[in-house]
C-alpha cells in the first residue's frame, strides 16, 4: 500500500536555516514529506517540481539594502502565488522573524498560518503536520 | 575571503545575539538586586544603559507610570534618557494612549516598526522609528509602570533590516521587563508590609 507523499517547499535566503528545518521536518512521524528548499524566489518559479501541498516562506529575502519595508517583497510574492491557478490548492505558511500586527493582518487572506522563527521544534512539527493532514 | 553578509534573523546572528542577551540579563539582575529601597529613578538609571548595550538599536528609553484619576489619567515620567518625550495631558487626547497601555498591560508588550498612524511619544515622526512598550508592574497606589523604548529616527530611504524590531529582541525585552517588574513589585510590597507591620506593633 503506498501512502500519500506531501510536497513541502521552503523558501528562505539562509541556507543554514534550511538545513535545520529539513532535519526537523524529517523527524515528523506518521506522514511522508518530500521537502524541497530554495534560497531565492526566482529558482522556485524556474525549477520543475511537483505542485507543493505547502509552501513555507520567509518575508524578508532581499539583501540588507536600503528599503522602506523589507517585508513588502514577501507580501508581493505570496499574493503572486495565490493569484496563480497552479497553486490554488497550495497552502502558504509564513515563517519569519517579523511579527508585526500589520503584516499578520495584511497576509491573513492569503496564508493559513503565520509563524515566527522563535517557535520550538515540536511546535513547528505539530504545525506542519496539522497543516498537511488537516487535523 | 569575502565576509558573508548575515541578516538579523540568520541563525548565527541570532545565536550570538541571544548569548549576549542572556549575559546582559544576568548583569541586570545582579545590578537591580543591589538597589536598596523603591527608587524608580535609580532603577531606571541602572537598567537603561544595560538595555542599550543589549539591543544597541534602542536609543530613547522612558519609564512612565499611568494612574487613572477621577478626571484625568495621570502620567508620571519616573526616568528618561531623552528630552524628546511628550505624553498627553488631557483625558480627551489620551484615550488612544490609554487603550494602548491597557493592551500592553494585558499582553506584556506591544511594538510597531516605522508605521504611520501610530501614537507618538517623541517629537520625531512615529513612522521614522521602531517602538516597543513593555509592561513592568502595578504599584500599591494603583499606578501601572511601563517602559517605552524607541530606535533612533531613520528615514525611509536609509532604513535597513537591522533597524526593525524582530521576534528575538521583542522576547528578550518582554522577559527583561518581567524581571524588572517582579523586582519592583517585591521591593514595594516588602516596604508596604514593613510599614503595616510596624503600625500594627505600635497599636499593641
Q: What is the topology?
A:
The complex is a heterodimer of chains A (135) and B (204).
Chain A: E1 5-11, H1 15-26, E2 32-38, H2 41-46, E3 54-57, H3 72-82, E4 91-96, H4 101-107, E5 113-116, H5 121-133
Parallel strand pairs in A: 1-2, 1-3, 3-4, 4-5
Chain B: H1 11-33, H2 40-54, E1 58-68, E2 73-80, H3 91-107, E3 109-113, E4 130-138, E5 144-151, H4 167-203
Antiparallel strand pairs in B: 1-2, 1-5, 3-4, 4-5
Helix pairs in contact in B: 1-2, 1-4
Describe the structure.
The complex is a heterodimer of chains A (135) and B (204). Chain A has five helices and five strands. Chain A is an alpha/beta fold and 135 residues long. The two termini of chain A are 22 Å apart. Chain B has a single domain, classed as GAF domain (Beta-Lactamase). In chain B, 45% of the residues lie in helices and 20% in strands. Chain B has four helices and five strands; from the N terminus they run H-H-E-E-H-E-E-E-H. In chain B, strand 1 and strand 2 form a beta hairpin. In chain B, helix 1 packs antiparallel against helix 2 and helix 1 runs parallel beside helix 4. Chain B is globular, with a radius of gyration of 19 Å. The termini of chain B are far apart. The relative contact order of chain B is 0.15. At the A-B interface, helix 1 of A face helix 1, strand 3 and helix 4 of B.
Explain briefly what this protein structure is.
The complex is a heterodimer of chains A (135) and B (204). Chain A has 5 helices and 5 strands, in the order βαβαβαβαβα.
Which key features would you list for this structure?
heterodimer; A: 135 residues; alpha/beta; Rossmann fold; five-stranded parallel beta sheet; 5 helices; 5 strands; 21% strand; globular; B: 204 residues; alpha+beta; Beta-Lactamase; five-stranded antiparallel beta sheet; 4 helices; 45% helix
Amino acid at each position: 500500500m503506498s501512502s500519500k507523499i506531501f510536497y513541502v517547499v521552503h523558501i528562505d535566503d539562509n541556507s543554514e536555516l534550511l538545513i535545520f528545518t529539513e532535519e526537523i521536518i524529517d523527524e515528523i512521524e506518521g506522514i511522508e514529506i518530500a521537502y524541497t528548499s530554495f534560497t531565492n524566489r526566482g529558482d522556485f518559479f524556474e525549477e520543475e517540481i511537483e505542485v507543493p501541498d505547502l509552501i513555507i516562506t520567509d518575508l524578508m529575502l532581499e539583501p540588507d539594502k536600503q528599503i522602506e519595508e523589507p517585508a513588502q517583497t514577501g507580501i508581493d510574492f505570496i499574493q503572486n502565488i495565490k493569484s496563480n491557478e497552479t497553486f490554488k490548492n497550495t497552502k502558504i505558511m509564513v515563517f519569519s522573524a517579523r511579527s508585526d500586527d500589520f503584516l499578520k493582518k495584511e497576509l491573513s487572506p492569503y496564508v493559513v498560518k503565520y509563524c515566527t522563527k522563535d517557535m520550538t521544534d515540536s511546535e513547528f512539527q505539530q504545525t506542519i503536520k496539522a497543516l498537511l493532514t488537516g487535523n | 575571503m569575502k565576509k558573508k553578509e548575515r541578516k538579523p534573523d540568520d541563525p548565527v546572528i541570532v545565536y550570538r545575539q541571544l548569548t549576549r542577551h542572556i549575559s546582559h540579563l544576568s548583569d541586570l539582575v545582579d545590578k537591580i538586586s543591589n538597589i536598596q529601597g523603591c527608587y524608580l529613578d535609580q532603577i531606571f538609571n541602572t537598567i537603561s544603559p544595560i538595555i542599550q548595550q543589549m539591543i544597541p538599536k534602542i536609543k530613547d528609553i522612558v519609564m512612565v507610570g499611568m494612574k487613572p484619576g477621577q478626571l484625568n489619567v495621570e502620567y508620571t515620567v519616573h526616568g528618561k534618557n531623552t528630552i524628546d518625550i511628550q505624553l498627553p495631558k488631557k483625558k480627551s487626547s489620551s484615550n488612544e494612549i490609554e487603550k494602548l497601555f491597557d493592551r500592553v498591560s494585558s499582553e506584556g508588550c506591544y511594538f510597531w516598526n516605522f508605521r504611520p498612524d501610530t501614537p507618538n511619544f517623541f517629537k520625531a515622526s512615529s513612522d521614522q522609528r521602531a517602538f516597543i512598550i513593555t509592561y513592568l508592574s502595578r504599584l500599591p497606589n494603583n499606578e501601572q509602570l511601563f517602559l517605552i523604548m524607541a530606535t533612533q529616527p531613520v528615514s525611509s530611504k536609509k532604513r535597513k533590516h537591522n533597524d526593525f524590531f524582530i521576534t528575538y529582541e521583542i522576547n528578550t525585552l518582554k522577559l527583561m521587563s518581567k524581571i524588572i517588574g517582579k523586582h519592583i513589585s517585591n521591593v514595594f510590597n516588602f516596604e508596604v508590609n514593613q510599614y503595616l507591620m510596624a503600625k500594627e506593633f505600635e497599636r499593641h
